[in-house]
Structure formats: C-alpha cells, structure tokens
Amino acid sequence: MSSTLSKQYDPTEVEPRWLRFWLEHRYFHADETSPTVPYAITLPPPNVTGSLHMGHALGSTLQDILIRWKRMQGFNAMWMPGTDHASIAVHHLLEKELRRQDGTTRFDLGRDKFLERAWAWKERSGNRIGEQEKLMGFSLDWERERFTMDAKSNAAVREAFVKLHEDGLIYRAKRMINWDPIGETVVSDLEVDTSEEDGSLWELCYPVADDPAGRKIIVATTRPETMLGDTGVAVHPDDERYKDLIGKRVRLPLTDREIPIVADTFVDPAFGSGAVKVTPAHDFNDYECSQRCGLPVLEIIDRKARIQAPAPAKYVGMSVEQARKAVVEDLEAEGLLGVVKPYKVPRGRSQRSGAVVEPLLMEQWFVKMQPLAKLAIDAVEQGKTRFVPELWTKTYMHWMTNIKDWCISRQLWWGHRIPAWYCDACGHVTVARQDPTACGGCGAASPRQDEDILDTWFSSGLWPFSTLGWPEKNRALSTFYPNHVLVTAPDIIFFWVARMMMMGLYFMGKAPFRVVYLTAIVTDENGDKMSKTKGNTIDPLDVVHGATLEALVARAEAEHATDAAVKNIRKVFAKGVPTMGADALRFALAALNNGGRIRLSVDRVEGYRNFVNKLWNASRFALMNLEGFDPDRYEARAGEHLGLADRWILSRLQRVAAEVDAALEGFRFSDAAVAIYHFVWGELCDWYIETAKPWLRVPEGPPDPAWQARRLATQGVLSTVLETTLRLLHPFAPYVTEEIWQKLPRGAAAPASIMVTIYPREDQRWIDEDAERQMQLVQDVTVAIRMLRSTYNVPPSWSVPVEVRMPDAARREIVERHRALIENGARVTMTLVERGEHVAQSAKAVVGADAEVVMVLAGLIDIEAEKTRIARDITKAEKEIATLEKKLANEAFIARAPEDVVAEQRARLADEQTKRQRLADALVALGQ
C-alpha cells in the first residue's frame, strides 16, 4: 500500500472501499462466547417502509461512536440491527398503491393476497434503510440483523401475549377507543396528532319536558351532529342555575326521545352555559360520565364515520360532515339553534392517514398497565435505569404514574395476528401458544382465529430480548441482556422506551438498559421541523454523495411536492448540496448535539467537511516528511531530543485524551467532538506542525548527527501524535481515519485496522505542565503579534520588526529561549526589552498583565488610508451592534425565540462590541 495521500480527499472513493474491508473481515461482529466484558446496544428499529432521515442519522451516529469507542477499549461490543414491520405505515403505502394501480382496496384483494403482496414488497424494498446505514459507516452486527415479523419474533410475541393473558394482564372488553375511519383501525392516543383547527361553537336549545314556563337548557358543542346520540344533559352539582332541574328531563330535538338532566363534577360551570350534552358512545369524558350516572349508550356513528341507527332515519347513511350541516339546518328551522361563533377546535387526526379520529365504543384487547408500570417506575426510582439528560426522568415518571390500559388490537392484516380463537358453539375464547384444532371449552372443531393483529409497539416492546432469542435461553441472551444504553429520540419515550422497560422487567426480571440517552431534535437552520411539505428536509445521503438543485427538485416533484415546497427547495438549496462524505456529516451531528435541538444547514456540515480536509492535508504533509522513519526504532528512544513544542503537544494530547474519554463516559458527545476539533485544528495543525517544519527539512551538505537526532525526534512526535489523534477521532469519523492510519508507518505488531486498535487513554508520564506553561507564553506573544498584523493589514509575507516589552525576568527568559518559535510563527524579527518609551505612530497589544508588543507602523503602511479603512469598519460594527441591541431589547423576540437563538444573538453582540473597541484602540494608535 502506498504511504502517500492524494492531493484531495475523495470520500466517494475511500468510503466504499473501507466499508467492504470492514465487512469482509467481520470487524462488526461480536461473539457471545468471548470471555471479554460485553457492551451491548440495540438499534431502535426503523420502519421497514422508511429511508434514512436526519433523526436516524443523528441517533445512529451517536450509537456508532459509543460502540466503536467501547470496541477499541477491548469490550465485546455488540450493536444489534433490525427493522420494524410498521403495520399502519405498510398498510397506508400498499393501499395507496392499490388505489393508484387498480382502483381497488385491500378488502377487494382479500387477506391472503394482500399479505402476499406485503411480503413481496418487503423483500423488494424493505432492506433499503439497512443499506443506507452501511453507507454511513455504522458498525452494526449485520450477521444478527432481525425483523419484527421474522420467525423468532413471531415466537416471542406469541409467548408474551399468552403469558400476559395467563397472568390476567391481557383482557378483552368493550371500551372507548380512537378510530381511524380511513385506515379502518384503532389508533392509540400516541398515534393521534391533536391541534387547534378553525371550527364553530354551536349553542343548542333543549326544551325542558313538561315545564309550564317553557324553559330551555342551552348546551354548547363543537359537534352538533353527535346530539343524535345524546342520552343525557349534565350540569355541575353545585351550579345554582340548574339545581332545581337535576333529575328532570329534556326533549331531545330532532328525535322522539326524552333524556335526563344529571349532575356530575366533570362539568365546568364556566364553559358556555354550564350545561353539556352527554354522548356516551362518541366522547371519552361523556362515556365516563354515563358510567357514573347510569346513562344508556347509543352508538350512532359507524366505522366509516357515517351516521347509523338508532339515529333518526333521515340522517342514517350521511357522513359526519353531512350530518353536521343537516342537523344545524334542522335545529335552526325549529328555532332551537342559539348563537354560533367561530371557535378553535382541538381536533385529533391519525398520524398516518390524516383522518379525523372518531371516539367509538368497541370490543378490543387491552393490557393492564398499572402493574407493569409499577415495575418500570421502581426501576428508575431505584437507579437501575437513568435518563440522560436527567430532565426527561420527570416526563417519563409523569406518564407512567398516569398510565391507562393499552389497547393492543388493530384492525389490519400486516402484523402479528392475535393468538385467540373463538368458538361459535359455546362462545369460549381459546388463547394458545400453538394453533388449536378444537375449542378449549367444549371441544368443538375448527375454532376461528381473531381477525385483528397486535399493535406494532407490542412486538417492539420485546425488542431488546426477543432479538437475542427469547423465549429460548441461550448464550447470546445471557451475554448481551441487559443492554448498556438505549439511544433514541425523546418523542418515543411513551411509544417505545416505557413499553420496553415494562416488558423487559416483567419477562426478564431486569431493566433492558442501564441508561436511556435522549438525543437532540434535528431541525432546519431556522429551528423549524424538517418536513417534505415545507421543502426544508436535508437528506443524509445527499450530504454524503452530493446532489444538484435539479436532482433535488426532480425528486420532490416525483413525490408530488407542493409548489411552495419546491419553491423553498430552490431557495434553501440554490447551489445544491456538495459532496461531503459520511465523516463530515457524522462529525457535524456529534459536535452540534449539545442541546434540545440541532439547527442543521448544509453550510454547517460544510464547516466540518473543511475540518476533515484540514486533517487530510496535515496528514499528507506529515507523510511526506516521515520518509525513513522507523516506529519500532523510535519507540526504544522515545523522549530523547525533544524540544518545547514536542513536549507541549505530547502533554496536550494526554489532556485531550482524558477530556474526550470523560465526555463520552458522560454521554457529552458534543464536548468530545469539540475537544478533538480544537486539538486537531488549533493545536496540532496550526501550532505543532508549523513549529515542526524547520526540523523536518533535510539540510544541504553533510549530515549533522545532532540535527538528525532532532529530526528523528520530531518525526517520532509527529507520527505518534497523528496516529493517536486518528484513534481518538475514529469513532466520530471512521472512514478518513482508517484511510490515513493505514498509510502511517506502523510497528510490526500493529493490527490490520484502526478500529481494532486501543482507544487512547491519558498517560500521566507525558503530562508536562512546565512545557504547557512556557508554550502558552510563546503562543500569547505570537497571537498578539498576529492580531496587530491583522488589525493594520500588514501583508503576511512581510517580515517586520516588533519590540516585546516584558518586565518579568523569568518570562523574558522563556521568550528569549524560544525566540525562533515566535519569529517563525509570526513572521517578525523581535527585540526583547524590559521596558520601553512611547513610539509615535506605533501599535500595541497587551500580553498578560504586565507585558506588551509594540509594532512601529510608520513606513510600514499608508497611515491615512488605514485610518479611513478602520473608521469605515467601526461604522459597520456600530450598525451591526445597533441591530443586535434592538433585537435583544424586543421582549416578543426574547419570549418566542428558542434559548439557543437568543444566546447566539447575545454572543454576536459581545463579539461586535469587542471588535469595535479593538478598532477604536487601533484608530487612536494611528493618531499618536
């Protein structure tokens, strides 16, 4: 293999090559029989219908950082991959396809044919997201890949259902549920998006029966059509307006029924008239009221959201919307319609179909949650599982302590069919691990199986242990359960995290993971949620491979994007997306994961692509100057002939290794990434390599033994620091680090891949506080000189004289001893004095409390032209300051804007104020 690097880093060539290498050598695979300490993570299984989005990219990047880090630390690191069968999503996709291609529905096709079609689609397209994960370099144990409907998962799901049923925790009952009339299935509360939509609040007049005064009770409702199923009117028992009417009856308009007036504390006397209509079969609160007050239940809306008997015949068959209009018109005609006013209606819609959800009363299968929730609450309270960030503990505990029974049946076909069989002869229900041939009650032949399937989250709740072979007891299960950490997004704490906690504790006796780490949420650069309808989505693979604007627009139009979305794509991605590689995206996501949200833009990722290129160029320079270097020979003499910069960089390397290790232990991914970033860019590249250049040049003439020894030492330090840095960086940017590491001169005992080397740990032997203190002074003086050059536009190619005034003899001696580092680093010739007199038309820069750098400007620059430029820059800075101060004085902005945006604006203001002061001081200096 060549030991040189190409001029440009090309991720499109490097990344596929190393991915193949890692897979061929099975580096991602963990052996459950290994005697080493296990470390396990289970990937939150993405939907089989999905493709990689930025949320996946973030979560999986952080998991891969952990698994590569622990693998390099010598752990038996296993990262379990897999996908979820996503019942509702697959149904939505395939039924849409059926309508488009054949104009039919799944009911026209039939269950068996539909399932054949679903499995064919899964085999054809269901592995797409796994291939995309590989492209990102995610080191999942692909040999263990699982699917929530594979044979092992089927066995686990059936065992869990039967065991919970045997233990009295699964039952069948008629309860209120959320019904999706388009998908024609139950959906859970967590699968309903509720938002305020424009609607109306209608006042309906219900005449009090047999009342001589002709009194009417006014009820306010956002759904007048449901009055056809009213069975009562409720008032608060303490409401003086209605106390004399409690127990009497009203005539229900448009029907021939009378209904009672009842008292119930759920009524808010301040809402509307203080009286509410009670429709038990179509409202959750009304149903509870009916049970307390003994009201009958009339079901007048069917599964397709149409009116049905026992509603009056006139309305039967109408859609909910049609009935609403008809009821309002008929009430108005009878003089029983009161005030109608605009109203923001909290309306629930199914996440998948977008249908308005109908509360219906149906017989379904439920899990008793309180006994299971107690186990999961206790585990967190006892510290067996902790949340990071800790603030999410409160969210988890609040939901767990207020949990309701879980409806687990779904009226779909793609999924785990409920293992319950019904006997038409005696009505017995048989729940069994194996398909029964006869009724468990009367013995009648061929009982029929329940048509419903289980909620997708039922099988997902078993995921941490079903993937390892449960209910079988095997070595993999005993080795890798429980997992060490779960990395996921906060929005599925209730969907998935809580259910895994309950299931794991119930079936395994142990919490499924010790830490739940909840990532930031990825948004666009303005803080808005990424969505195809907005046209602000950044596709991870577009960042990796690049995409032209034309390609982005063509894809959006093929997916039937709106004109507004396409317009926004043209605006946001006017230049397309440049090819940046997986490493740049991974590093960006890790570095930016430092709060509640990541404001991602192509420009921000591009900044980290520049970091990857900086590392590449520095490594290329190093390799060009390591010719003849023998790491085995150097190892025996390490520590000899080291200069200040050598001792300093080796000491700083230990510090950053300790910082990164501590940050990863604390799940502070951003801190770890930023520490590496600053070390590579600011210390290794900008300082050490620059100071090393003079010693790496091969002098003309006969060899000087002292020079050769120093050159060998510099080569050794550069090679050592670079190799160690690559290992530090590898979990974050695996591809580029592997490529460079393979080119470095390595000892005979080195392994075949960087990913199976040892992760760096702090080595106290190389900590050199004196070298760090001395180098800090050298850097302070150099930076002060560079700032003067920058402020007054002194060309970088000019070597100029400066005077360094330093009263402290010990500090002056350090500067004198390392004069060459300063003069080479700042392109100056330096005069070092204890004190000095005022020099006209000179500029000063302070170094610490008692020292300064003086640069004479006369004859060096055009003084008058420079005054004009600086004055112009001051005016520009003052305008920016005024704009920022006005924004930060706006109370509405402070109240609405996210904390990170406000903090960013305040930081910008501080920077501009500092800049203005520096420019003002520079202008004063020129006028002296």
Count of separate DSSP helical elements: 31
Provide the β-strand percentage band: 15-25%
The end-to-end distance, rounded to whole angstroms, is 62 Å
Considering DSSP H and I runs of 4 or more, what fraction of the residues is helical? Answer: 40-55%
Largest sheet, strands/sense/barrel: 4 strands, antiparallel
Structural class: alpha/beta
The strand count comes to 29
Gyration radius (Cα, Å) is 36 Å
> How confident overall, as mean pLDDT?
92
Question: Taking strands numbered 1, 2, ... along the chain, how are they ordered across the largest sheet?
Answer: 6-5-14-16
Please outline the helices and strands.
Elements: H1 11-24, E1 38-42, H2 54-72, E2 76-80, E3 82-83, H3 87-101, H4 106-109, H5 111-125, H6 128-135, E4 146-147, H7 151-166, E5 170-180, E6 185-187, E7 192-207, E8 216-221, E9 232-235, E10 249-251, E11 258-263, E12 275-278, H8 284-293, H9 320-333, E13 337-350, E14 358-367, H10 370-381, E15 386-388, H11 392-401, E16 406-407, E17 409-410, E18 420-422, E19 429-431, E20 448-449, E21 453-454, H12 456-461, H13 463-466, H14 475-480, E22 483-488, H15 493-508, E23 513-518, E24 521-524, H16 540-545, H17 549-558, H18 563-572, H19 581-592, E25 597-600, H20 602-624, H21 631-636, H22 644-665, H23 669-696, H24 705-729, H25 734-743, H26 769-791, E26 800-805, H27 809-817, H28 819-826, E27 828-833, E28 842-847, E29 851-856, H29 863-889, H30 891-896, H31 899-926
Parallel strand pairs: 1-2, 3-4, 9-11, 15-23, 22-23, 24-25, 26-27
Antiparallel strand pairs: 5-6, 5-14, 7-8, 7-13, 9-12, 10-11, 14-16, 17-21, 18-19, 18-20, 26-29, 28-29
Helix pairs in contact: 1-25, 10-11, 10-15, 17-18, 19-20, 19-23, 20-23, 22-23, 22-24, 22-26, 23-24, 24-25, 26-28, 29-31
